[in-house]
Structure formats: structure tokens, C-alpha cells
Amino acid sequence: MTNILISGASIAGTATAYWLRRHGFTPTVVERAPALREGGYKVDIRGVALDVIERMGLLDAVRARSTDMRIATHYDGKGRRIAEMDADLFGGRAGTDAEIMRGDLNELLYDLTRDDVEYIFDDSITGISEDGTVTFERSAPRRFDLVVGADGVHSNTRRLAFGEESAFVRDLGYYISICTVPNRLGLDREEAVHAAPGRTANVYSTRQDTNAKALFMWSSQPLAYDHRDLAQQKELLAQAMAGVEWEVPELLEAVRGSSDFYFDSVSQIHMDRWSKGRVVLVGDAAYCASPASGQGTSLALVGAYVLAGELASGGGADGYERELRAFVDANQKLGPANVKGMVLPSRAAIWFQTRMIRLLPHLPGRDKMIDRVAGPMARAATAITLKAYME
Q: Domain FAD-binding spans what residues (predicted)?
């Protein structure tokens, strides 16, 4: 096994390309977008994923591009500050955990691989035969020993090899939307949050960013919409957030002109197997834990490391699953629990949460309460012992 095709130039795809090349494979990456995707939201790197980053020689670069978030402030409908908390606690970070913009991390990974990995942009896989012949929308057919699907929760590779997405998606009952907006609040490394029953709006601006990101989450039954119709999705967001006070009306107006709009259900991917024939999946395509887990990026980084290591050491796809399955299970459990604290069902629940945030610095059991917030994530983030595949 030498020539390996990776579908997707996101975090999982670029990280897999790096480790495959380190182990002597010849990876090729195909990406539907016309260029590397920039921007995106901030992501966390925790636990053993930091070890992976360090083994790639990127830890200092990641630290240098830290979001440097300072504080999270909760506002009521009239714009009054009602509670504040440390940004790391708000994000469930502890110790040496790092936070970086997704586009910055992807750029670092791409720069590590661009000189010795072939990237094919503006193209997509249309078919995978039993002998490894892959057909594309634009390029001529080519034969590969293995195809790695690293193309996200709506993976085209997974659909071709395993069947329709509906068989593997577990909807958690919420939706999420995020895009760039003007920083009209003048935020400086601050999260500004407003909660209404069943709906949450969060605006933040990171270090060295003159704009802001507006993030919306809300509870909802499954919505029927076209995944490529952004105008329709923006209208669904406007309907979901209608009547919410604070800065939400102005934010929704800014959303209409955004060029990096993201909209999706808060869902997970659950599969009995991550490999079939000449196809293996990594990252969100195989085991999306949902944005609510806070562990999607770490799962992608660790999954890429383990997959490449097992292929190189002879464990193959079976070894990859054996090594990673318990780690994935532990991290997927975070999503359903976390989202309930991100979108609260009632005004009473909102009042109680903000009251506890205000009281937290003064409570005698402060450390135990903090562990209830950050502890489960920290334990899940270290729920695997990484093999030293390169030794």
C-alpha cells in the first residue's frame, strides 16, 4: 500500500496527509473547494491532541496564533451585563489547552504538507471501484491503494462507500449558525452572550481580528432545507431568532450580507465500522461529535495520527478502530450533555445559570463546581494513550 487518496483538505485531511507522508506513503488530497478554506470559527486543541501537535513541530506556532480570549460576558435583553466568567472556563479549557481559529490551524497544517503532497482543488470523487480506481468530476480516473474520507459530517466518500447519510446521523435536536459580522460592540478578545428560552446568541472577537463572529444556537425539530441554498438557510435562522432581544436584530441584518455563512444541525455521526474495502474514514466523516462537544478538532488530529500510524505499523484499519474507538466514544458523550448548557429551555434556567456564574468566585465548593464544567472534557481529551509510531 503506497498511493493513498484523501478526500477533504480540512483539519482531518491535511493532518492525515502529513502523517502518511512521514510514514513513507504517497498521499494525494482532493478538495471540492477551489482553494484552502480560510476563516471559520475558533476551535480548541486539548489533551493528547496537543501531543500530536507537538510531534508535528507546530506547538509554538499554535500558541503564537492563540485567540487570547479573556472573558465571557452575559447580557440581558436590554444590553445590561448580568454575569461574567473567565473565557477558558466558559470554553471548558484547562491547563495547557489551546484555542486557535480553524483557518489558522488549517493553514499551518497545509504549509507542512504543500511541498511534498499533491493537492487537487476544485474537484470531487464521483466513484470508487473495487480495484481502487477513482473517478472525479473534473480529473481523469486514477488508481489508489486506499481512499481516506476526511470530508466532514456530510461526507461524499462515506455516501459512496457506506450508503446514505441518514443511516449514520444522530440529530441532537439543535441547530447552529456562524458567520463574520462587523465588530459593532467593540469587543476585544471577549465573548458576548445573550440567552433566550431555546435560543442563544454569542458574538466574539479574537486577538488581531477587526471583525467579529456571530454564533447562534437554538433547539428545533429537524428542518427541511437545501444544504447549498444559503439564502434559504439565512431565512431559517432569521425565523428561529425572531423576537430575541439584545443585539440580535442588528446581527441578523449583518448576517444577510455575510460571505462565510455556516448553517447546520447539531448532529453526530455513529458508525459500527469506519472502513469498508478500500475506503476508511477519519474525523467528522467517521465520528463527528458535534460542535457542542468542543472536541471535533482534537478528534480529527488524534484520528489522523492513529490512522497513519496503524497503516504504517501493520495494524491497518482494524488496528485504527481498536486504538481509537474508546476515545471516540468518550468524546461523543460530551455533545448531548454540553448542548443542554449552551441552549437553555426556560427563563428560570437562564436565571439560575447566570446567578451561579455570579456566585461562583465566592462559593466554598468552587473547585468542585469548576470540575463539573471542565472535568468531563479534560478526562475525555486524555482518554487514549498514543503509541510512538515513529520510534
A: 2-313
Cα–Cα distance measured from residue 216 to residue 241, given in angstroms and rounded to the nearest whole number: 8
Question: Do residues 214 and 171 touch, judged by C-beta distance below 8 A?
Answer: no
Residue 209 pLDDT class (50, 70, 90 cuts): confident
pLDDT in tens, 23-64: 999 999 999 999 998 878 899 999 999 999 999 999 999 999
Q: What is the pLDDT of residues 64-120, one digit of tens each?
A: 999 999 999 999 999 999 999 888 888 878 778 999 999 999 999 999 999 999 999
Q: How distant, in Å, are the alpha carbons of 46, 136, 284, 288 from that of 150?
A: 20, 16, 7, 11
Q: How many residues does the chain have?
A: 391
